[in-house]
């Protein structure tokens, strides 16, 4: 393919005529929309709503941890039987922890993150008119919405929502009599998750097929932005691992409701001998973590892709080591399937297996390290423009380093003996996948807000939002490492029963106030977000001077994304500050023939005809100069 | 125009929040009745937040006006790239100091030295990993925020077009790979030694059984052997389901405190009856889940007596702990046992005072069953002899 040839788009063939003459009703435009941009907005707004709910839940249990002896009459007004006398009940505390984790991991950082940005960016960045199957895409959102409603509805049942932790290990989750949260609340949790997984699969299949089949002319895989690479690999990961969780969940439903013994054996509950025999609780853990571990990469990889994009654009530099970035994503994708056992070092799994999982786990740190170094190298000698998106992307890198390094402790089976299920783990995953991924998501929101809503967000409020959230997140999670190193277990309703843990009370109070401040900082975001949708400044076509395809589409959304023909792509997405060019970015749609002065021999590696043309041009330039 | 709109919407938002604050106050009327509370009611805090919002809005407006006046005077507005760049470097300095403070102050509150033999190996591993990761932590964070400050944007510069450098990339792939290989190998062998729990003669076997929300302890009697347990034998007077057809069961002892003789190899056999629990002995670097239907075990050798540890830490009320570390229901946060490490002589004295599981009541119950069972026991023996 000669990318140098001047393409003449004389007559445009309208192969998408069917798109032009249909009229949207309110229902087909805003509710059951099949347009990927609208679905992205639906995912985003639902995701943000769920995030706010999950954040409020976390504040509730943080208050309990900070003031275990105090009563708050308002709580009993708000929560009724769940907070008798103004103190959370121990079982409701566990329900809060469970639902906070479930919502954050699945509803916010899986659906809210992938759902929003894969939907928005895959078609726009690879140059497609919509997803491969817009109808299935719509179904994907509505299954997600149903799952959200079911999950939240579990707060309104008698015994409260599921309370066995977000990992819902049986037998605790399988025996309705074991705790209040294992009754109807757990049933709703399981139903909600089945809907959620259906949604996730429909989304994932769409993302994969769109990336593989619907790229525009010239957009080969190695010309895709890293964000698309990340969404693509994330979708593959989800499609391969989520079904395993369905299997696990269905067997759990059988154990709960139909008297089977997949996970249960030799049980005496409350003095009652049960008839279950021959099952293994460890089986569930294997099934759960076979999804559960890839899941943390499902959460972090889109955030990584978004940050790679945002860092390159705002450093005005090509991403350093584009190929290494892609290969490390592929490496993480592959390895993430064979590390799940590191969640089970001390659960009774064969110790030899533990050794094997430890090796694979520590190997996965290598591609992660490469990514981190490449981000930092991208910023080196850049011309960094501090948009709020850039700050959040930098925040992601910082959290990813801090949280990633503690992963080296936890991935080591020998060290995990004493750290397993302590606050050290809480600190680790909240930094490396919680905070990092939410920062990636926020970076995406700030960066692509103009694309989503055609408006600009307020930058100053963005700065305020970033610094408050960033500092408070560190204040919340950094001290937790030391609690964990003192052996303080997670999921404890109160530390008051252990005199040895009393000295952590002041730290807990401090953490709670940092968390409350962080939560209040989100007001700056919510105000900014809502206000900008309606009253924000109108965005220019390409507000960040970015090279990628989505900014060539008109600001006003139209079904089919581009009027006329879809633009052709000629170059990779990271031609920022290329020497010899007059602006500091060159759009992917600009052919090399128009940028003679900035072309490099390297640009024609797989294009001998182009290289020859380039050499001729270079020679001519030289002789011209000699003449002068 | 935009400004007035903004102010209007702000006002509307405040009104909304204000009404909810009033409502919150209504519901919060109850708390003010209870005396001696530092909580002045929710309304107070909501108003405080509103006040902060107003202050932030005012500061925002002032900045904007300042910026505009600068521009009117023909000067450049506030250079936000510089402002944020400087905040980045300040954050780096404050953050590094904060991390240092946290490491030294809170870092001193962590568990004391390991009180078990394998634990010191784990601790050595831990400190090695800590040193390596802290070096990487400080360097990378310093580079990240240092670059953010140093290369903050300006109109005069252009970024440096530098898409890749294979040599550098190889270096920073291989170096982490080597460091991690060392840690893996080191960790793998530590893990293998810790979990190498082949039964040796002279091990003290102790059964720990978890149920909601208590641990039950079972020590072997004079014979040094624990009898078989089976959940099917469970009755209200035989809560562990001890099998009394097994002779070794007769002298098994019940205990309230996990007392361990120092410098003796201990093998704890871990059972669970209802849900998963976890036997966690943080001071000994011991943890293993208790799984219903899947007995597990952990072998370790305590090296420091409780008395000794109290002296070392200068805490006269120090106790080793056994706690549940796997979510197991509402009482999870209070499922504990005191662990005491004593000298061999003290242990012998203590064990001789423990009561057997085979209580008189249980004997009576079993005796009734014995009449029918004696024969079958005899037959079993014959079967074995054959």
Can you offer a commentary on this structure?
The complex is a heterodimer of chains A (628) and B (386). By secondary structure, chain A is mainly alpha-helical. Chain A folds into 2 domains: 35-538, Cytochrome C Oxidase, Chain A (Up-down Bundle); 549-627, no CATH class. Chain A has helices spanning 17-20, 26-31, 36-66, 73-79, 90-126, 134-153, 184-213, 226-257, 281-315, 322-335, 351-363, 365-379, 388-410, 413-419, 423-453, 459-485, 505-535, 608-627, and strands spanning 268-269, 272-273, 455-456, 537-538. In chain A, strands 1-2 form a two-stranded antiparallel sheet. A two-stranded antiparallel ribbon of chain A has the order 3-4. In chain A, strand 1 (268-269) and strand 2 (272-273) form a beta hairpin. In chain A, helix 8 packs antiparallel against helix 9. The radius of gyration of chain A is 26 Å and the shape is globular. In chain A, 61% of the residues are buried. Chain B is α+β, with helices and mostly antiparallel strands. Among the domains of chain B are: 1-78; 204-374, Cupredoxins -  blue copper proteins (Immunoglobulin-like), CATH 2.60.40. Helices cover 51% and strands 15% of the residues of chain B. Chain B is built from 9 helices and 11 strands. Chain B has helices spanning 2-27, 29-33, 42-72, 80-105, 117-150, 166-195, 306-313, 344-352, 360-385; strands spanning 204-211, 214-219, 253-255, 258-261, 266-272, 277-281, 286-290, 296-300, 320-324, 336-342, 355-356. Chain B has a 6-stranded mixed beta sheet with strand order 8-5-1-2-3-11, with no helix packed on it. A 5-stranded mixed beta sheet of chain B has the order 4-10-9-6-7. In chain B, strand 6 and strand 7 (286-290) form a beta hairpin. The chains are: A mainly alpha (628), B alpha+beta (386). Chains A and B meet through helix 4, helix 5, strand 1, helix 9 and helix 10 of A and helix 1, helix 3, helix 4, helix 5 and helix 6 of B.
């Amino acid at each position: 393919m000669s990318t140098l040839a001047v393409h003449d788009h004389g007559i445009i063939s309208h192969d998408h005529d069917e798109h032009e003459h249909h009229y949207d009703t309110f229902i087909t435009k805003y509710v059951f929309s099949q347009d990927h941009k609208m679905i992205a907005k639906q995912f985003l707004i639902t995701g943000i709503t769920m995030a706010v709910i999950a954040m409020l839940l976390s504040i509730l249990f943080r208050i309990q941890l900070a003031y275990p002896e105090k009563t708050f009459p308002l709580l009993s007004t708000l929560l009724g039987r769940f907070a008798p006398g103004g103190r959370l009940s121990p079982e409701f505390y566990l329900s809060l922890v469970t639902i906070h984790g479930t919502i954050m991991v699945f509803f916010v950082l899986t659906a809210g993150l992938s759902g929003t940005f894969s939907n928005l960016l895959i078609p726009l960045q690879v140059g497609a008119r919509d997803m491969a199957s817009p109808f299935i895409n719509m179904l994907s959102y509505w299954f997600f919405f149903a799952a959200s409603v079911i999950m939240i509805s579990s707060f309104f049942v008698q015994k409260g929502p599921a309370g066995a932790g977000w990992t819902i290990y049986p037998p605790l989750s399988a025996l309705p009599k074991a705790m209040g949260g294992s009754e109807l609340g757990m049933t709703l949790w399981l139903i909600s998750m089945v809907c959620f997984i259906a949604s996730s699969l429909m989304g994932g299949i769409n993302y994969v097929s769109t990336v593989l089949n619907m790229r525009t002319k010239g957009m080969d895989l190695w010309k895709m932005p890293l964000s698309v690479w990340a969404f693509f690999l994330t979708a593959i990961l989800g499609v391969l691992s989520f079904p395993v969780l369905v299997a696990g969940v269905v067997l759990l439903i059988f154990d709960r409701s139909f008297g089977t013994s997949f996970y249960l054996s030799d049980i005496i509950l409350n003095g009652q001998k049960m008839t279950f025999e021959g099952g293994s609780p460890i089986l569930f853990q294997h099934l759960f973590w076979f999804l559960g571990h890839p899941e943390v990469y499902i959460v972090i990889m889109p955030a990584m892709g978004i940050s790679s994009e945002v860092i390159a654009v705002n450093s005005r530099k090509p991403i350093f080591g584009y190929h290494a970035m892609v290969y490390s994503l592929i490496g993480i994708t592959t390895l993430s399937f064979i590390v799940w056992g590191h969640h089970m070092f001390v659960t009774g799994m064969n110790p030899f297996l533990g050794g094997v999982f430890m090796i694979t786990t520590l190997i996965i740190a290598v591609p992660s390290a490469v990514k981190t170094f490449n981000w930092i190298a991208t910023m080196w000698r850049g011309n960094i423009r501090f948009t709020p998106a850039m700050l959040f992307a930098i925040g992601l890198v910082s959290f990813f380093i801090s949280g990633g390094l503690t992963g080296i402790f936890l991935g080591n089976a020998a060290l995990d003996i004493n750290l397993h299920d302590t606050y050290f783990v809480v600190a680790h995953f909240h930094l490396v996948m919680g905070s990092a991924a939410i920062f990636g998501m926020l970076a995406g929101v700030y960066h692509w807000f103009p694309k989503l809503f055609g408006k600009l967000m307020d930058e100053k409020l963005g700065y305020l939002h970033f610094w408050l959230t960033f500092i408070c997140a560190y204040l919340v999670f950094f001290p937790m490492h030391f609690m964990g190193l003192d052996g303080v277990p997670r999921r404890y309703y109160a530390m008051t029963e252990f005199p040895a843990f009393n000295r952590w009370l002041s730290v807990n109070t401090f953490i709670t106030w940092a968390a409350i401040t962080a939560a209040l900082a989100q007001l700056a975001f919510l105000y900014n977000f809502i206000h900008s949708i309606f009253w924000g400044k109108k965005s220019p076509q390409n507000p960040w001077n970015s090279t990628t395809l989505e900014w060539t589409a008109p600001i006003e959304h139209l079904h089919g994304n581009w009027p006329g023909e879809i633009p052709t792509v000629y170059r990779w997405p990271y031609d920022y500050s290329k020497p010899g060019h007059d602006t500091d970015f060159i759009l992917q749609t600009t052919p090399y023939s128009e940028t003679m002065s900035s072309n490099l021999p390297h640009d024609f590696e797989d294009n001998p005809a182009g290289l020859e043309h380039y050499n001729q041009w270079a020679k001519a330039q030289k002789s011209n100069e000699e003449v002068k | 125009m935009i400004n007035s709109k903004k102010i209007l919407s702000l006002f509307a938002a405040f009104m909304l929040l204000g009404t909810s604050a009033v409502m919150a106050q209504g519901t919060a009327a109850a708390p003010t009745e209870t005396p001696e509370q530092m909580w002045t009611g929710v309304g107070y805090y909501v108003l405080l937040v509103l006040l902060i919002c107003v202050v932030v809005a005012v500061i925002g407006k002032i900045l904007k006006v300042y910026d505009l006046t600068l521009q009117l005077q023909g000067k450049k507005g506030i250079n936000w790239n510089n402002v944020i760049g400087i905040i980045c470097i300040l954050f780096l300095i404050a953050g590094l100091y904060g991390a240092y403070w946290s490491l030294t102050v809170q870092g001193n509150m962590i568990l004391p030295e390991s009180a078990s033999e394998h634990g010191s190996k784990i601790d050595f591993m831990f400190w090695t990993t800590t040193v390596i990761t802290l070096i990487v932590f400080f360097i990378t964070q310093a580079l990240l925020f240092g670059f953010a400050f140093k290369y903050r944007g300006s109109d005069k510069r252009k970024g440096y077009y530098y898409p890749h450098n294979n040599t550098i990339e190889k270096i920073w792939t291989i170096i982490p790979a080597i460091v991690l290989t060392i840690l893996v190998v080191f960790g793998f062998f530590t893990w293998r030694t810790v979990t190498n729990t082949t039964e040796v003669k002279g091990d003290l076997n102790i059964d720990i059984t978890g149920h909601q929300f208590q641990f039950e302890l079972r020590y072997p009697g004079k014979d040094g052997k624990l009898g078989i347990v089976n959940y099917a034998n469970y009755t209200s007077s035989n809560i562990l389901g001890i099998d009394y057809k097994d002779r070794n069961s007769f002298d098994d002892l019940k205990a309230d405190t996990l007392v361990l003789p120092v410098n003796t190899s201990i093998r704890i056999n871990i059972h669970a009856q209802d849900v998963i629990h976890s036997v966690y002995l943080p001071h000994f670097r011991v943890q293993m889940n208790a799984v219903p239907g899947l007995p597990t075990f952990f072998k370790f050798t305590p090296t420091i007596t409780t008395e000794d540890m109290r002296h070392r830490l200068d805490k006269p009320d120090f106790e080793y702990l056994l706690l549940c570390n796997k979510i197991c229901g509402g009482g999870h946060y209070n499922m504990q046992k005191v662990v005491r490490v004593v000298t061999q002589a003290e242990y012998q004295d203590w064990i001789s005072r423990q009561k057997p599981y085979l209580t008189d009541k249980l004997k009576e119950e079993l005796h009734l069953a014995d009449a029918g069972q004696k024969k079958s026991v005899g037959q079993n023996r014959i079967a074995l002899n054959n």
